[in-house]
């Protein structure tokens, strides 16, 4: 597979498109308006330029960037061999997108969801061809983080999951793990309760955010503290993942702390908004 489509060009979609272009793919990126597309173009150009300056690219940045086409026309996805959706973590939005893609992509096209928490079976149910729907969960920042989780729903054709695994591993150069279809899959099912516990610890006044983070970095050799990691992920995204996990497992450890909700309601979403638990 060489013709990659990416729907949604926020941080995750931009990263997936960049990785695909560096791997030699013909990449098509779709989003809802030109302003969002323009921001994504600047983000990718800056990322590639930084890597070129450090000697980390095998080709000039402009050649890599030239493999990416940007459009607001979803119908342009008609010739893609694999389409990865990276829109907001909303089942309603993802279901609506899959319904549209049913009438656009070819029967042989793989449609992969980059959801970080929503069960793939729930997403696949919106499609007329649920057998070609699969999970492909990348991690932020995509150009740096090596892992992709590939998730098969009950409806997924095993050959589709295997082809997605092969594409992510052999074309994109990612490490791939396979997961069964439950909310949070492997990584977030383990990580998110830990992050929520760190917020509860801060909320209950047990320690400052700085001391919580330093405790896990200095005491457990974590590369980043949990409160800082929440800000990096995005507090709105973390809240949506927590709600998905709680709905699936009814585990109190997955319930979103009030302090997390207050930050999201205040628009303090972390690094992407300039202020979360920390100020950037």
Kindly list the characteristics that best describe this protein:
280 residues, alpha/beta, Rossmann fold, N-(1-d-carboxylethyl)-l-norvaline Dehydrogenase, domain 2, eight-stranded mixed sheet, 11 helices, 8 strands, 46% helix
What does this protein structure show overall?
- This protein has 280 residues and is an alpha/beta fold.
- It has 2 domains: 3-179, NAD(P)-binding Rossmann-like Domain (Rossmann fold); 189-273, N-(1-d-carboxylethyl)-l-norvaline Dehydrogenase, domain 2 (Orthogonal Bundle), CATH 1.10.1040.
- It has 11 helices and 8 strands.
- It has an 8-stranded mixed beta sheet, with helices on both faces.
- The radius of gyration is 19 Å and the shape is globular.
- 43% of the residues are buried.
């Amino acid at each position: 597979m060489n013709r990659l489509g990416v729907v949604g060009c926020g941080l995750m979609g931009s990263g997936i498109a960049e990785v695909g272009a560096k791997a030699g793919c013909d990449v098509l990126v779709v989003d809802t308006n030109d302003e969002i597309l323009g921001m994504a173009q600047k983000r990718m150009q800056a990322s590639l330029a930084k890597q070129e300056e450090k000697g980390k690219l095998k080709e000039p940045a402009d050649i890599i960037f030239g493999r990416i086409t940007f459009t607001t026309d979803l119908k342009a996805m008609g010739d893609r061999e694999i389409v990865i959706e990276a829109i907001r973590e909303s089942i309603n939005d993802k279901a609506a997108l899959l319904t549209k893609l049913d009438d656009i992509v070819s029967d042989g096209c793989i449609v992969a969801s980059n959801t970080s928490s929503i069960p793939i079976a729930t997403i696949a149910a919106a499609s007329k061809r649920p057998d070609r729907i699969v999970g492909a969960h990348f991690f932020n920042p995509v150009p740096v983080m090596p892992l992709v989780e590939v998730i098969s729903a009950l409806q997924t054709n095993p050959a589709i999951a295997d082809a997605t695994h092969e594409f992510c591993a052999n074309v994109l150069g990612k490490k791939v793990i396979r997961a069964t279809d439950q909310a949070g899959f492997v990584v977030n099912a383990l990580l998110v309760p830990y992050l929520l516990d760190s917020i509860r610890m801060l909320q209950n006044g047990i320690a400052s955010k700085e001391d919580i983070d330093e405790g896990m970095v200095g005491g457990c050799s974590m590369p980043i503290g949990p409160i800082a990691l929440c800000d990096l992920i995005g507090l709105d995204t973390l809240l949506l993942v927590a709600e998905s996990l709680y709905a699936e497992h009814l585990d109190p450890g997955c319930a979103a702390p009030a302090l997390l909700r207050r930050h999201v309601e205040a628009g303090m979403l972390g690094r992407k908004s300039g202020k979360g638990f920390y100020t950037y």
